[in-house]
Amino acid sequence: MLIKTYDQTGKELSQTRLPAEVFGIEINQDLVYQVVVSQAANRRQVSAHTKQRGEVSGGGKKPWRQKGTGRARHGSIRSPLWRGGGVVFGPRKEEVYKRKINQKMRRKALFMVLSEKAKNNSLIILDELKLETVKTKFLAKLIENWKLKIENFKDGSLLIALPVIDKNVILAARNLPRIEVMQAKDLNVLDLLNFKYLLMPKDSIKVIKETFIN
Are 189 and 106 part of one and the same domain? Predict the structure, then answer.
């Protein structure tokens, strides 16, 4: 598959041939769904935690005698029946939500989503992306210029995949809404699906091949 390649100003330069083993894969919705669910589960942060009756304070003494008071029998104020007592079947930090999925499935799903991005004109290839200064305003102006000059690039969230770490790009994009920067070697299905467009320099294609195929 051939795709148009642009310079940093948005001017069309040439065409780049995308490797068929990465960008020419037919999508399997069931496989992509499995991978997305597993990745979302593995990222889940377990923070909710309730105390059971053995963990709450107090309750070392029987609240009142067993008989003769006219009240119901109770042995401890730690009982779940009492306010401030233990919680029954509440969420615990020990719960594990992780799901295991093998590497071949993750890679195949990644190639499927990359193929769909290319097929749906949501993939934008630049000859290179270099910022001489860390200026959010400068990067924002570049993106607006791309939207004017690149035919298939309109409003929508944007994921920038760099071949190597570029602190200038990362810092400049940090305060821009709906824009995220990551390395091409760290691409994954969940992040790709969370953004409408994928933009990357031409060298990122080589990094993807070396990381996920070779």
Answer: yes
pLDDT at 6: 93
Q: Where are the beta strands (DSSP E) in the chain?
A: 2-6, 12-17, 123-126, 158-162, 179-183, 197-201
Can you tell me the distance from the alpha carbon of 8 to that of 199, in angstroms, rounded to the nearest whole number?
A: 11
Number of domains forming the structure of the chain = 2
pLDDT 10s digits, 40-93: 999 998 889 999 999 999 888 999 999 999 999 999 999 999 999 999 999 999
Catalogue the long-range contacts made by 186-191 (C-beta closer than 8 Å, 24 or more residues apart). Answer: 187/110, 187/114, 187/161, 188/39, 188/106, 188/110, 189/32, 189/35, 189/36, 189/39, 189/106, 189/109, 189/110, 189/113, 190/35, 190/36, 190/39, 190/40, 190/43, 191/159
Domain around 82: 45-96
At position 2, the amino acid (one-letter code) is L
Token pair, residue 65, equals: 């005698």
Q: What is the mean pLDDT of residues 119-145?
A: 92
Cβ neighbour number for residue 86 with a 10 Å cutoff: 19
Amino acid letter for position 72: A
Q: Cβ-count burial of 145 within 10 angstroms (0-12 exposed, 13-18 middle, 19+ buried)? A: middle
- Domain of residue 7, CATH code: 3.40.1370.10
> Quick one: pLDDT band at residue 213, thresholds 50, 70, 90?
confident
